[in-house]
């Protein structure tokens, strides 16, 4: 058994805190050390406020979600509308194509090939755009998961060392339901 040298006020505060939490002083030191290692926080230079850190994380998540919505509104939806209109025009031209050509097989074959190339081009463009959107969405989801993991670490370990209020814990639990 090792001892740790602390002033009397700190020892009493630790004793009271551990009794309140139902843990030993040794467990407190063990849990605290695990928390600081896992979270990467330097205990000699702690954040000003865990609430402020959580607010920063929440703000960043909101910015990511806002970016995704803006990207979808400004880029994907107009593109989808344009592609839908183009598809309608192609269908319209394709349906009237035999009448326009007057039955000339050579002209019909040429135009059919052009339409097939155009459809391939449209399909390729759509695939590329949806791939880009998927990659952006995966990045946002990964960043959101990373931020959520960090919040969970703060919430789990911060509560163990008395760094967060019960209202934050309650709000976090409600969000995870």
Task: Give the topology, please.
Layout: H1 8-21, H2 25-39, H3 50-101, H4 105-160, H5 166-176
Helix pairs in contact: 2-4, 3-4
Main attributes?
mainly alpha, 5 helices, 177 residues
In terms of per-residue confidence, which ranges show pLDDT below 50 for 5 or more consecutive residues?
Answer: none
> What is the string of SSEs from the N terminus onward?
HHHHH
Helical segment count: 5
Number of strands: 0
Question: Terminal Cα separation, in Å?
Answer: 42 Å
Quaternary form: single chain
What class do helices, strands and sheet pairing give?
mainly alpha
Question: Outline, from the CA principal axes?
Answer: rod-shaped
The main β sheet shows up as: none
The share of residues in extended strands comes to under 5%
Q: What is Rg?
A: 30 Å
Percentage of residues assigned to helices: over 70%
Overall pLDDT confidence: 82
Kindly summarize this structure in a few lines.
The chain has about 180 residues and is mostly helical.
Describe the fold and architecture.
The chain has about 180 residues and is an all-alpha fold. Helices cover about 85% and strands about 0% of the residues. It is built from five helices and no strands. The model has no long low-confidence stretch (mean pLDDT about 80).
